[in-house]
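Worked example 3. Consider a protein that binds calcium ion.
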Amino acid sequence: MTKAFHTTSSADTEQATMPWWKTATAYQIYPRSFCDSNGDGIGDIPGIISKLDYLAGLGIGFIWLSPVYKSPMVDNGYDIADYQDIAPEFGTLADMDTLIAEAKARNIGIVMDLVVNHCSSEHPWFKAALASEDAPEHDYFIWRNPRLGRNARPDDLQSSFGGPAWTYVPELGKYYLHQFAKEQPDLNWSNPALRAEIYKMMNWWFDRGIAGFRMDVIDLIGKDVDAGILAEGPQLHDYLQEMHRETLAGRDVVTIGESWSTTPQTATLYCGSDRKELSMVFQFDHVKSGWDPKFGKWKPKPFDLSRFRKTFFDWQMALSDDGWNSLFLTNHDLPRQVSKYGDDGEYRVRSAKLLAIILHLMKGTPFIYQGEEIGMTNARFEHLEDFRDVELFGHYDQAIADGQTHAEFIAGANANGRDNGRTPMQWSGSEHAGFTTGIPWIAVNGNYPTINVAADMANPEGVAATYLKLISLRKTMPIISLGEFIPFSISETKVFAYARERDGQRLSVVANFSETEIVYDVPEGLSGLGRCLIFNVQPRDQIAKQIRLAPWEAFAVLSE
Ligand code: GLC
Ligand code: CA
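Given these inputs, the predicted complex is written out as structure tokens:
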């Protein structure tokens, strides 16, 4: 028999005592593309402030704000020239203080992006380092002499953005390391004075009222360059523990560690409850599993549900007792999820809802990337000149040299390139999607007259309605934040199914990951009577032993 379910959490002490970020949903803002307040074509902080009511309406708990610091913008702000100032195109420190205060007034925390594996070559530290080998800042960076006799690079390490990771400075007769663009010199974390500067800066931001940090490529800080160990190097966890002692201890904040290298085996080193390091890891197994071994993201593999599902299930199981997952399908470095994993044509709305349902009902903190909540799609640019991303231009020549054709590269960029997520937020059907009154820095997706916030929010069956519901369910139902994860149907080629269990309740989640109607033989343990919490096609209050699933149908049933 179906019983009434508990909608309040007050009786649940475990939920009541757990950290706030375990019931919160995050929303990532890429400031350049969110909302432009002054018509220069570039999104800015006053623009974000003007949309806080919209974000509060969705019910989000915190904003991950991609970098807004002073920067020459070689990598759109991931190259920081002053950690304690704001880029003029984004606003001022006063604007930032207003954003923090106005967000707080709406119960929204601001989580800043901490980019400290590297800074900008325009940072005064790097300028001082270039000016004199005797300057203390010289040792804030990583220098190596040319290889003896050959005046060649210290080794063949390649930068993530293409080309060598070592750049020669003729005046000094040596090379510096940069794992990203040459304008992003790596910082030398083995220097204690540098680390102290970073901790001081972090505390300065905490004292201004931010709710935490998302830590950019944090797995790279503990490297041993000479041993060739860059990711998850020998010093990584010592530094994170020191950072915790010096900045995080005693503060009720959230920390999210971006790590492209962590595995289900190493994740709890970052976020295990006894580690005193980070709140959660932000890992990419589901993303990397879809890339070509030789050409990487520029040559996507066809989607394979089994492979994709396995990465999620493995991570759910690995962090079931300790540690904490970030749940996401997309961000500013990735394609739009409905284009990548769903159907951005006929079933755009339905498949966008399916992706939201399967992701948000897993264990972890879900992250929504701006525009995802209305089912925004990939850009589909035709020419190389339409793109803006430094990574893409850095890889183009290499890909062509390695034998990819121009057309193949453009197709790869349209499938997986970072600019897909960076086209302006589509607010309305008016010119430039209501993002700017000027000329946007990157083209607006041509589908904005139909896909935009105003249209989606006006429709009770829009994508955002599903997000609103998921965000509010997470806040009130401990089974979503804390329930045990139980994988189902791991050899089905079209169905993504799992259950969550807690205190005698079971939440069953079923999704048809395909554009065809299918008959699904429901496994023991997933079938039964209950109450439908959320759906994208039809409400179902019972899961029979065999059910017919419509294309891209998803639903969740709670039973007790
Ligand atoms: C991270 C960021 C990405 C940036 C890179 C270098 O992966 O998400 O946007 O380019 O680090 O900072
Ligand atoms: Ca602007």
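Take a moment to read the result before moving on. Residues 75, 78, 115, 180, 216-217, 258, 332-333 surround alpha-D-glucopyranose (ligand 1) (CB under 6 Å). The first helix runs from residue 13 to 17.
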